[in-house]
Write a structure and sequence with these properties.
By secondary structure, this protein is of the alpha/beta class. About 40% of the residues lie in helices and about 25% in strands. The strands form 4 sheets. The protein has an 8-stranded mixed sheet, sandwiched between helices. Strand 14 and strand 15 form a beta hairpin. The structure holds aspartic acid.
């Protein structure tokens, strides 16, 4: 049975400054009689700024403290705009940042990924403190929840794997009581906690996934992800003219689109929702009355061509050194290496004496993987490529999108066409 609770997720752009936070509070006024779990990302580009703090700290560049101070001041400024100079929020924010100041005062002893999670997670801690305080200030019945107390992960820092069993009992113990006394519960996206109480993150852009986890655990009526676009579009409006909004999508179509790199929702978001048949709305926080896109069980619609462009692609051409065939044993070894260095394969092709894969550039991980493979294989690496995927392609569409490009690798599987391309260098006639 579905619970009456709804889950809303607000991303970084929707809470990027004081006006944006006021806008979120206005949207929530329309739902003031409902029970809503609100999942929030870090404000604006805070996660990127905190990643710079981590890098500065681990490379000992000497400016980690100053970079952190800048992030802290930005939060204080937003709080000042919303509340004036005197408010309990300042001491809450101070407590949030002080923990990290202590971390970076010490010399680094712990692993990079562990440190990353402890530092970067404060973006969500700070944004949720500010939003919850502002909703209370506006007279809403609201409380704040520490997501680390209800989302349990293992200790794979930066990519925490959720323990669904423990998460379920923690949610059952801790969440219903909060809704008895409040209509709104504000919590952080992107983060979880280990058994030893360390903070983990769920992977960049992971707040959608957090929202889906909580919607699943609460058996929610629906999940709404509020974005700066009117819904799911047929292409990225920053790259293409004339993109259209898609009104309805099946879970299957949505999972395929996100798998191929559509950034509009995190790829892990759909499965928990599909498993409990929870509808997902993708809506605009700029035009909250707009219909948005509804993602649910199979819908009978004919989809238009949908384009997903993934930049920063790398092709690895792997071949045997002695001209022998690539066998299942070789492939087994290769897949193990990709898994070991956590590199996701976007596309692959097996030929007699070679195996070609397309992966997203992750310089640090590839710098470890490539020498490992070179011990046994010959490798040619092609960088700075684009992966273009067209779902429900038509020939015209493929021709238009490949014009002026060299296609290095292509694949047609049922309705989906994928190609890895490189710009043809432009020559100007003298
Ligand atoms: N703040 C995190 C990020 O920027 C998580 C999220 O926004 O989904 O990756």
């Amino acid at each position: 049975m579905k619970n009456a609770t709804k889950v809303f997720k607000f991303g970084g752009a929707s809470v990027k400054d004081a006006d944006a936070i006021r806008n979120v509070a206005n949207i929530l006024k329309d739902y003031s009689q409902e029970k809503i779990m609100i999942i929030v990302s870090a404000m604006g580009k805070t996660t990127n700024a905190l990643e710079k703090v981590v890098q500065a700290y681990s490379k000992k560049t000497g400016d980690a403290f100053a970079l952190l101070e800048k992030v802290k001041q930005e939060h204080y400024q937003v709080a000042m705009d919303l509340f004036g100079e005197e408010h309990a929020i300042f001491s809450l924010l101070n407590d949030t940042f002080v923990e990290i100041e202590w971390v970076i005062e010490d010399d680094q002893q712990d692993g990079y990924d562990y440190i990353y999670d402890q530092i970067v997670s404060i973006g969500e801690m700070a944004s949720t403190r500010i939003l919850a305080a502002f909703l209370a200030h506006e007279g809403q019945s609201v409380t704040w929840l520490d997501a680390r107390d209800v989302i349990r992960t293992d200790d794979t820092f930066r990519e925490g794997r959720v323990d669904w069993g423990i998460t379920s009992s923690l949610c059952q113990q801790k969440i219903p009581g909060l809704f008895e006394n409040n209509n709104l519960v504000v919590t952080q996206g992107f983060i979880g906690g280990t058994q030893e109480n360390f903070t983990t993150t769920l992977g960049r852009e992971g707040s959608d996934y957090s929202a889906a986890i909580l919607a699943y655990q609460l058996n929610a009526q629906s999940l709404s992800i509020w974005k700066d676009v009117p819904g799911i579009l047929t292409g990225d409006p920053r790259l293409f003219e004339n993109v259209q909004k898609i009104d309805r999508l099946s879970y299957k179509e949505a999972i395929e689109m996100t798998y191929y790199g559509a950034k509009v929702i995190h790829p892990k978001t759909i499965k928990p929702l599909e498993n409990k048949n929870i509808p997902l709305f993708v809506k605009s926080f700029i035009d909250p009355a707009g219909e948005g896109t509804l993602i649910s069980t199979d819908v009978n619609v004919t989809y238009p061509p949908v384009v997903v462009v993934e930049p920063n692609q790398v092709l690895l051409h792997i071949s045997t050194r002695d001209f022998s065939f690539v066998t299942e044993r070789h492939l087994g070894f290769l897949f193990q290496q990709f898994d070991k260095y956590r590199i996701k394969i976007n596309m692959m092709q097996n030929m007699a004496i070679s195996f070609t894969v397309c992966v997203t550039e992750r310089s640090e991980r590839l710098a470890q993987l490539i020498p490992e493979l070179e011990k046994d294989f010959k490798l040619v690496v092609d960088r700075n490529l684009e992966l273009i995927t067209i779902r429900h392609y038509t020939k015209d569409f493929v021709d238009t999108l490949s014009a002026g490009k060299i296609i290095l690798f292509e694949e047609y599987i049922r309705g989906t066409m994928s190609m890895v391309v490189k710009e043809i260098p432009k020559m100007i006639r003298k």
